[in-house]
C-alpha cells in the first residue's frame, strides 16, 4: 500500500470528520490504535491541523462511506497512475552528523571480526560508501593509524537484529558455496544468540600444546634408569674414605 502524506494529520482529520473506528483509522494511517484514541481524547497530536485525504487525492468519499457502514472494512489508498512504477531510491542509510565520525571505527570492526560480510552489506549497516570500506580493508585510509575497531551496535549505527540478519545471510552464502569453516569462523557467521548457545569444540590448552606426543609412563623412567649410571654423593664429591681418616688421626697423635 502506498504511503500517506502527513499520516498523523490525516488521522486527526478522520477522527474529527468521520465515524470510523479507531482500528480502521489506525490501520489506514499506520499508527497504533491507542494513538488514535489519544488523538480523540486530545492527548496526542495537540495543535496538529487536520489533513483532508479527499481533497489531496488519497481517499474517496465512497471509500469512507463503506468504512463507516462496515467496521471491519479496511480503507485503501487511492492509487495515483502517475506514481506507478516508481521505486524508492536505494542507497546508504542516513547517519546523523554526531555519529558520522564513528563510522570508520565501526567499519574497521566489521572488517576485522566479520570479513565475510560484503561491502554492500557493510554499507547498508553503517551508512557509508564502498570506497571508504575498501580503503579501510586495504589500510590505505588517511586516518587508519588512529582508528580503533568499535562495535557498530554499541555506537548506535545499526541494530543487533540487523547485524545478525546480515551475518546469517553471509552464513547461508558460505554454506551454499560449500566452504569448510573452523569453530571460530562458524561462531562469527551466526547470530549472537546462536553463538552463545553453541558448545565449544575440545581443544588442547596453549600451555601444553605440542607436548601430546610425550609420555610419562613407567617404561620411560625404567629405560632412563638403565641408560644412566647411578651416582652417589661420595663418588660425586670424591670424598675420602673412612680408613684414610683414621690413619691421619694416628699420625697426628704420634
Q: How would you concisely characterize the structure shown here?
A:
The chain has 254 residues and is an all-alpha fold. The protein has helices at residues 7-17, 22-29, 33-41, 61-69, 103-113, 119-126, 130-137, 152-155, 160-177, 183-188, 192-197, 218-227, 233-237, 242-253. The protein contains 14 helices and no strands.
Number-wise, the strands total: 0
Mean pLDDT: 75
Question: How many distinct helices?
Answer: 14
Which regions are unreliable across 5 or more consecutive residues at pLDDT < 50?
Answer: none
Organism: Marinibacterium profundimaris
InterPro entries: TrcR (IPR010421)
Pfam family, one: TrcR
Biased composition (Acidic residues): 218-231, 242-254
Question: Could you describe the 3D structure shown?
Answer:
- The chain has 254 residues and is an all-alpha fold.
- The chain has two domains: 7-82, no CATH class; 90-200, no CATH class.
- Helix content is 49%, strand content 0%.
- The protein has helices at 7-17, 22-29, 33-41, 61-69, 103-113, 119-126, 130-137, 152-155, 160-177, 183-188, 192-197, 218-227, 233-237, 242-253.
- Helix 2 packs across helix 3 and helix 5 (103-113) packs across helix 7.
- The model has no long low-confidence stretch (mean pLDDT 75).
Amino acid at each position: 500500500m502506498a504511503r500517506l502524506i502527513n499520516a498523523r494529520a490525516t488521522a486527526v482529520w478522520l477522527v474529527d470528520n468521520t465515524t470510523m473506528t479507531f482500528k480502521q483509522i489506525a490501520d489506514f494511517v499506520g499508527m497504533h490504535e491507542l494513538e488514535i484514541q489519544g488523538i480523540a481524547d486530545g492527548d496526542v497530536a495537540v495543535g496538529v491541523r487536520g489533513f483532508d485525504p479527499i481533497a489531496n487525492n488519497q481517499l474517496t468519499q465512497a471509500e469512507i462511506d463503506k468504512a463507516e457502514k462496515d467496521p471491519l472494512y479496511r480503507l485503501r489508498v487511492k492509487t495515483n497512475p502517475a506514481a506507478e512504477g516508481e521505486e524508492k531510491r536505494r542507497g546508504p542509510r542516513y547517519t546523523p552528523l554526531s555519529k558520522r565520525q564513528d563510522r570508520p571505527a565501526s567499519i574497521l570492526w566489521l572488517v576485522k571480526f566479520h570479513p565475510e560480510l560484503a561491502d554492500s552489506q557493510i554499507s547498508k549497516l553503517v551508512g557509508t560508501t564502498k570506497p571508504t570500506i575498501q580503503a579501510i580493508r586495504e589500510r590505505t585510509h588517511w586516518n587508519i593509524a588512529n582508528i580503533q575497531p568499535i562495535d557498530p551496535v554499541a555506537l548506535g549505527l545499526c541494530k543487533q537484529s540487523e547485524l545478525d540478519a546480515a551475518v546469517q545471510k553471509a552464513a547461508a552464502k558460505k554454506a551454499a558455496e560449500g566452504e569448510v569453516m573452523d569453530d571460530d569462523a562458524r561462531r562469527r557467521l551466526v547470530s549472537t544468540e546462536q553463538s552463545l548457545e553453541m558448545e565449544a569444540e575440545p581443544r588442547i590448552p596453549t600451555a601444553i600444546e605440542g607436548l601430546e606426543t610425550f609420555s610419562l609412563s613407567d617404561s620411560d623412567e625404567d629405560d632412563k634408569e638403565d641408560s644412566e649410571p647411578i651416582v652417589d654423593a661420595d663418588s660425586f664429591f670424591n670424598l675420602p674414605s673412612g680408613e684414610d681418616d683414621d690413619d691421619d688421626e694416628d699420625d697426628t697423635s704420634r
